[in-house]
Amino acid sequence: MSCSLKLFLTLLLLFTGGIAAIPIHYQGEMDNTTWKTELKFDRCEIYTEIPDWGFKVSFIAESGQSLQLLIYSRIHSAAAIKESFAEVINAPWYELQASPQEQIMADSIGENSINFRQGVETIFQHMLAGSWLQFYSMSNTEVMYIVSLPTTSWQKETVSFNQCANQLPVINYEEINQLSFNYIENQYKLNKTQTKDLVKLSDYINKDQSVVKILIDGHSDKYGNSSQNLRLSKFRADEIAQTLINNSVNMDLIEIRGHGGRYPIASNDSAEGREKNRRVSIRLVKANAKTNNLN
């Protein structure tokens, strides 16, 4: 028995008040454990399925997110899982060698899924080096499920998965639509941080073929001349648009609007509020999506 399994059994005895769990072990066959991929510009997945058990085990890389391990299972409908952890083990031909001491606990357990986020990259790298994946799940009915999955047939799929993951945008759609560029008084030029954010944004736009419009809305606070504020808000939007164009974004997608101080999001009575109002917001419109109100 491995040290990690001994540790898990000890924890289970604590969780179950000293009542030994009933183990059910699935050992994946080397020739029949097939790994597949689903690859998109913002999401890369490598997975294997165990139809008889209703399992799907996936490693998922997404834009702006750390690598995650996600396990879907029909077991949850019969007996909810209350504890789970995963580890890497040696392939059988290396069983006499010391195995990597890498175990990770589930970050969340849902009705039909177990999600791991912390430490998944390390587990994945050990698997790329030849280790196998094994995970343990304890049900509310005191049944312990142990699943061991070989990696002997996944080399070809990991190449395409890693290529996909290495090309992911570093920012995702949700983060983009929360971007806001703020300015000091009477300023419209971008600082270094803002320029870097626009490079990330450009990379995303150039990879997402579903983007049909980029709305760039410039704003000012309400202090000063309204005509000057209108021009200033337009300058701010123009500067951002030009930076996107300089980073190969199609200019035909861009719609620029300057609003002056007509749409404040905070009180102009305080310096903090005025700073929030001096802004440019960017929203991406995708095919078949409706635009929202101004930000």
From TrEMBL:
Every OmpA-like domain range: 170-288
InterPro entries, per the entry: Bact_OuterMem_StrucFunc, MotY_N, OmpA-like, OmpA-like_sf
The keyword Transmembrane is assigned to this record: no
Swiss-Prot/TrEMBL keywords: Membrane
Keyword Methyltransferase: no
Pfam family membership, one: OmpA
PROSITE patterns the record matches: OMPA_2
Cellular component, GO, one term: membrane
PANTHER family reported in the protein's UniProt record: LIPOPROTEIN YIAD-RELATED, STATOR ELEMENT OF FLAGELLAR MOTOR COMPLEX
Protein name: OmpA/MotB domain protein
Record organism: Psychromonas ingrahamii (strain DSM 17664 / CCUG 51855 / 37)
Source species taxonomy: Bacteria, Pseudomonadati, Pseudomonadota, Gammaproteobacteria, Alteromonadales
